[in-house]
C-alpha cells in the first residue's frame, strides 16, 4: 500500500473518530465539516476533501460504527464456535455471562453507542444509512445467526421470535448501560429471561401423535 493511500485511510479514520465524538457530545446537528476539522486538529477543508457532502460524512461515521460492532459480534461468534466444536453444551449461566460480556464491550465504547443512538433517531431521511445501524444491517444478520446457535446450544427455543426477543433485550441493556445505569447486573437480567424462556418451553402443550 502506498504512503498516500495509508495516510488517506488514517485521515478518514481520524475524521470518523472526531465525528463520533462530536455527535456523542453535542448531537448530530452539531456535526459540520468545519467542526470535524477543529475536533481532529487537521487543516480546514480536510474533512470536505474526504467527504464532500454532509451525507458522505455521515456515511463515513456510520460505516465506522457498524464495522466495530460487527467485529465484536464476530468475536462472540468465534467464541461460541470454539465451544461448539469442542462439544461443550452451554448452560444458562454461561450463556448469560457471554451475552453480558458483549454488552460490556459495546457499552465501554460510550461515544460509539451514544453516537449510534443519536444517528438512529436522526437518519429517517437516510434509510440506507439508518439500516446499517438497525435491523437490516450485516451486524443484525450476524447477531441473529449467533443468537440462534447459542440458544440451541443451551437447549432453549431458537425460533425467530425468541431470537429477536433476545437481541432486543441485549440492545436495550447496551442502551441502559450506556445512558442510564452502569451498575445494574446484566447477568441477572439475562439469566432471568433465559430461565423464563426455558420455563415457557417446558410448559408448552405437547402435541400427541397417534
UniProtKB/TrEMBL annotation:
Domain of life, per lineage: Bacteria
Keyword entries, A-Z: DNA-binding
Chain ranges of the HTH tetR-type domain: 9-69
Ion transport keyword on record: no
Segments of the chain annotated as binding DNA: 32-51
SUPFAM superfamilies, alphabetized: Homeodomain-like (SSF46689)
Pfam families in the cross-refs: TetR_C_31
Protein name: HTH tetR-type domain-containing protein
Species whose genome carries this gene: Amycolatopsis cynarae
Amino acid at each position: 500500500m502506498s504512503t498516500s493511500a495509508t495516510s488517506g485511510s488514517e485521515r478518514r479514520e481520524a475524521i470518523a473518530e472526531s465525528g463520533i465524538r462530536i455527535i456523542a457530545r453535542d448531537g448530530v446537528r452539531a456535526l459540520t465539516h468545519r467542526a470535524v476539522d477543529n475536533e481532529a486538529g487537521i487543516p480546514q477543508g480536510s474533512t470536505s476533501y474526504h467527504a464532500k457532502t454532509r451525507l458522505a460524512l455521515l456515511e463515513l461515521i456510520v460505516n465506522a460504527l457498524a464495522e466495530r460492532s460487527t467485529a465484536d459480534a464476530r468475536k462472540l461468534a468465534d467464541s461460541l464456535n470454539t465451544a461448539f466444536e469442542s462439544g461443550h453444551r452451554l448452560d444458562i449461566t454461561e450463556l448469560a455471562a457471554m451475552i453480558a460480556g458483549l454488552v460490556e464491550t459495546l457499552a465501554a465504547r460510550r461515544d460509539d453507542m451514544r453516537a449510534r443512538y443519536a444517528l438512529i433517531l436522526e437518519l429517517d431521511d437516510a434509510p440506507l444509512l439508518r439500516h446499517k445501524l438497525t435491523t437490516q444491517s450485516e451486524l443484525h444478520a450476524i447477531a441473529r445467526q449467533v443468537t440462534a446457535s447459542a440458544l440451541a446450544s443451551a437447549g432453549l427455543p431458537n425460533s425467530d421470535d425468541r431470537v429477536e426477543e433476545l437481541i432486543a433485550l441485549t440492545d436495550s441493556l447496551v442502551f441502559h448501560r450506556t445512558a442510564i445505569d452502569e451498575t445494574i447486573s446484566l447477568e441477572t437480567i439475562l439469566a432471568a429471561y433465559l430461565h423464563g424462556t426455558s420455563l415457557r418451553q417446558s410448559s408448552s402443550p405437547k402435541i400427541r401423535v397417534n
